[in-house]
């Protein structure tokens, strides 16, 4: 596939913005998927190619949060197990399900999250000092993380919102630590999904790698922003990004 200089700039800029948005909240793929499709990719190829950037931004963000001591590692395996299983099932579904299913699922998810944040924000943004819980002592978290993984494997766009709801809502992590774990979960099941898409021959590597460079720099900046931001600021950023996700879903 031939790529023009304008398309390179488009991928780098949208990747950079998506890296920031995905690390602090979610929904960055609402920028990158249209950018890939503008280049002439079918929806399923854009969906698969987008995962290259998502994987790289996840790796960058996880390393950054860990460096700043914001990644809780003592419960990661129980958190990852249902996320990975869900991601695998979701990716398998995305490879064979009709593409017209994606928009209703995305829009419904964004509307539900916006309503939750507006009506009861403490579900996704616990008060500072709230004691977090362990997965093994919180059975509901298995279902939440599994569904988040399935959604991420199937759609990817907006999965950050669903993961934050599971991590902050059921396990009561504050938004910074929930974002760190969210990025770890996203990284793991994105790698699983990417493997399946590669096997299906759906990934276009040149635009995927260019996009990944942008997401890497965006994620690195977003980690620093998350560490220094006030919890209230992160909560409102999450709400605004959820509304933007709703708008993107309706317009797509």
List keywords for this structure.
252 residues; mainly alpha; globular; 76% helix
Number of helical regions: 10
Q: How do the SSEs run, as a string of H and E?
A: HHHHHHHHHH
Q: Count the strands? A: 0
Structural class of the secondary structure composition?
mainly alpha
Mean pLDDT: 83
Compute the CA-based radius of gyration: 17 Å
Helix content: over 70%
Shape: globular
Largest sheet: none
Percent strand equals under 5%
Number of domains: 1
**Which stretches are poorly predicted, pLDDT < 50 over at least 5 residues?**
none
Distance between the termini: 24 Å
Oligomer state equals single chain
Task: Walk me through this protein's architecture.
The chain has 252 residues and is an all-alpha fold. It has one domain. It is built from ten helices and no strands. Helix 1 crosses helix 3, helix 3 packs parallel to helix 9 and helix 6 runs antiparallel to helix 7. The longest helix has 25 residues. The two termini are 24 Å apart. The mean pLDDT is 83.
């Amino acid at each position: 596939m031939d790529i023009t200089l304008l398309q390179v700039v488009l991928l780098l800029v949208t990747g950079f913005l998506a890296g920031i948005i995905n690390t602090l909240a979610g929904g960055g793929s609402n920028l990158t998927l249209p950018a890939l499709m503008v280049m002439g990719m079918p929806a399923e190829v854009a969906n698969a190619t987008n995962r290259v950037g998502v994987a790289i931004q996840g790796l960058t963000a996880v390393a950054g949060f860990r460096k700043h001591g914001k990644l809780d590692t003592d419960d990661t395996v129980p958190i990852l197990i249902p996320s990975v299983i869900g991601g695998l099932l979701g990716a398998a579904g995305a490879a064979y399900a009709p593409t017209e299913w994606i928009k209703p699922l995305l829009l419904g998810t964004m509307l539900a999250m916006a309503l939750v944040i507006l009506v009861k924000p403490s579900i996704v943004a616990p008060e500072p000092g709230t004691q977090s819980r362990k997965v093994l002592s919180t059975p509901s978290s298995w279902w939440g993380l599994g569904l988040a993984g399935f959604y991420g494997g199937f759609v990817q766009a907006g999965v950050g919102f669903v993961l934050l709801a599971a991590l902050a809502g059921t396990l009561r992590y504050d938004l910074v630590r929930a974002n760190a774990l969210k990025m770890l979960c996203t990284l793991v099941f994105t790698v699983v999904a990417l493997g399946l898409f590669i096997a299906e021959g759906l990934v276009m590597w040149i635009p995927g790698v260019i996009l990944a460079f942008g997401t890497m720099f965006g994620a690195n900046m977003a980690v620093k922003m998350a560490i220094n931001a006030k919890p209230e600021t992160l909560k409102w950023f999450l709400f605004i990004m959820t509304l933007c996700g709703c708008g993107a879903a309706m317009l797509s």
